[in-house]
Write a structure and sequence with these properties.
The protein is mainly beta and 146 residues long. The chain is built from 2 helices and 8 strands, in the order ββββαββββα. A hairpin with a 5-residue loop joins β1 and β2. It is rod-shaped, with a radius of gyration of 32 Å.
């Protein structure tokens, strides 16, 4: 960088200087909630970009997708369908990080599969009654959430 100075008489002088700009301010992570669906196998996945809510570095530049990561991105319905908290980590070009948390909500839009036996022979007791249990009719019914 060249510095130029002038006085009131119009005389000028100049010199060169090196200016080093340091940015030691970490980025700002911004999160938003996510709603996702379990698939037929009872698995739900999310990507960091779904949780990211326009995280920025110290200069206001949006953090690129490849600089985002989640502590957890795959969820099993068998672990429960209640909302879960994930942590988004944002890394700027200088390697500085910030984190925020977001809630992940789950939808189960897959109908259960009902499988019943085709026939059942029962024998009445001396009073003419028979107690029927669901297990006697079920033939492997299932649901993606366990």
């Amino acid at each position: 960088m060249t510095l130029t100075v002038a006085n009131v008489a119009g005389q000028e002088g100049s010199c060169n200087a090196t200016v080093t700009v340091e940015n030691n301010v970490p980025p700002t992570a911004k999160c938003k909630f996510v709603a996702t669906n379990f698939n037929e196998e009872g698995i739900a996945t999310i990507a960091p970009r779904q949780v990211n809510n326009k995280s920025v570095d110290a200069c206001g530049v949006l953090i690129p997708t490849e600089a985002l990561s989640l502590d957890e991105d795959t969820f099993l319905a068998t672990d429960g369908t209640e909302p879960r908290t994930v942590t988004l980590t944002v890394t700027d070009v200088r390697g500085m990080i910030d984190q925020c948390t977001a809630t992940v909500y789950f939808n189960d839009n897959v109908d259960p599969v009902c499988r019943n036996i085709s026939a059942l022979t029962i024998y009445l007791d001396e009073t003419g009654a028979y107690e029927l249990f669901p297990e006697e009719l079920d033939n492997g019914s299932s649901d993606n959430t366990g």
